[in-house]
Structure formats: structure tokens, C-alpha cells
Design goal:
The chain has 85 residues and is an all-alpha fold. It has a domain at 1-40. It has helices at residues 3-39, 65-75, 77-84.
Length: 85
């Protein structure tokens, strides 16, 4: 084979390899950017799932006396009942 032909084939293979690498790297960069933007986007209520929870959620089913008194205080029911007496 002629040295010039071999050199031309090498150039063509090199250029094609470079084009494929540039395409692959740019595609990968766009995918990474899209994923990063999606993960750092502001959360909309209800779309994000919070991990964890109460260790014993049954304890909140029935309020205790302190919780009822505090709720009455917050609602102003204690003041009304004191005013009525």
C-alpha cells in the first residue's frame, strides 16, 4: 500500500474517532447537567418524599391531658371559660 494512502486512512480513522469521542462526551455532559438540574430543582409540595418518621406513631392517636390543656390555651378556650364564671 502507498504511504500516502495509509496516511489518509489514518487521518480518516483519527477524525472519525475524535468526532465519536466529542459526541459521546458532549452527550454525557448534557445528561449529567440535566440530572443535576433536576436533583437541585426546588421541591413542590407533595412531590418530594421525606424519609424517617415517628418511632411510635400510636402515641399521637390519643392526646394526653397536658396536650388537651395546651390546645385549649392556644384556642383561647380557657379565657372564655374564665370570663363566663
Amino acid at each position: 500500500m502507498e504511504p500516502e494512502t495509509t496516511r489518509n486512512i489514518s487521518y480518516i480513522v483519527g477524525i472519525l474517532s475524535l468526532a465519536v469521542m466529542v459526541w459521546f462526551i458532549s452527550r454525557r455532559a448534557m445528561d449529567n447537567r440535566a440530572e443535576m438540574l433536576e436533583s437541585s430543582a426546588p421541591k413542590v409540595a407533595g412531590e418530594d418524599e421525606l424519609e424517617g418518621g415517628a418511632r411510635n406513631p400510636q402515641q399521637f392517636d390519643e392526646p394526653d391531658e397536658d396536650a388537651l390543656n395546651e390546645m385549649a390555651e392556644l384556642l383561647g378556650e380557657d379565657e372564655e371559660s374564665e370570663m363566663e364564671s
